[in-house]
Amino acid sequence: MRILVVEDDVDLNRQLVTALTDAGYVVDSASDGEDGHFLGDTEPYDAVVLDIGLPSMDGIRVLEQWRKDGRKMPVLLLTARDRWSDKVAGIDAGADDYVAKPFHMEEVLARIRALLRRAAGHASSELECGPVRLDTRASRVTVDGNPVKLTSHEYRLLAYLMHHQGRVVSRTELVEHLYDQDFDRDSNTIEVFIGRLRRKLGIDCIQTVRGLGYALDVPGAARAAD
């Protein structure tokens, strides 16, 4: 899952990027409103952490423009503790949630997990597909209760498919959502990671839909697209 952080405080920006990266997300960042707006307008993010008080273009204007242009990614606003009016303005502009500064990083991570779940139509922090279970809080994967050790790339790939199970996800979409803007994006690497995931999971849950991409389904379930 790919996250954008837009925060002008250098230290806080770095802390957010580090925490989100350590939690298994791919993270891009910007330090002012114009750069943040451009990235959110041109790159496919699964969620955005957006500060309100930004130079060049404030966070409310950035958000309003994204929504006006049809950008629907979930947005978590960072607001000053004593500015309730900012919270109201942010929600009215299209924010999905907010957290007041100063905050605990675990709260931001929990809110991001919740936004991603809701965007994909999931209510629980544990995603299931047949015997495969992915715990988004602990970044832990099990099959029939047995832990499966995955690399960060393998985990991100499985997590994206788990969040979007039941539909076909193209290679292009996977590349766009699993790698940051500076990564040498080669769709062939997706095939390599898919092969590794299949071997490690040991069950037939990742289906290849010829000419379209991949779909995660309960093992044994029939797909009309195959």
Automatic annotation (TrEMBL):
UniProt keyword Transcription, yes or no: yes
Modified residues (4-aspartylphosphate): D51
Every Response regulatory domain range: 2-116
Sorted UniProt keywords: DNA-binding, Phosphoprotein, Transcription, Transcription regulation, Two-component regulatory system
UniProt name for this protein: Winged helix family two component transcriptional regulator
GO CC annotations on file: cytosol; protein-DNA complex
Matching InterPro entries: CheY-like_superfamily, OmpR/PhoB-type_DNA-bd, Sig_transdc_resp-reg_C-effctor, Sig_transdc_resp-reg_receiver, WalR-like, WH-like_DNA-bd_sf
UniProt DNA-binding region: 124-218
PROSITE patterns given in the database record: OMPR_PHOB (PS51755), RESPONSE_REGULATORY (PS50110)
OmpR/PhoB-type domain residues: 124-218
SMART domains: REC, Trans_reg_C
GO molecular function: phosphorelay response regulator activity; transcription cis-regulatory region binding
Cited Pfam families: Response_reg, Trans_reg_C
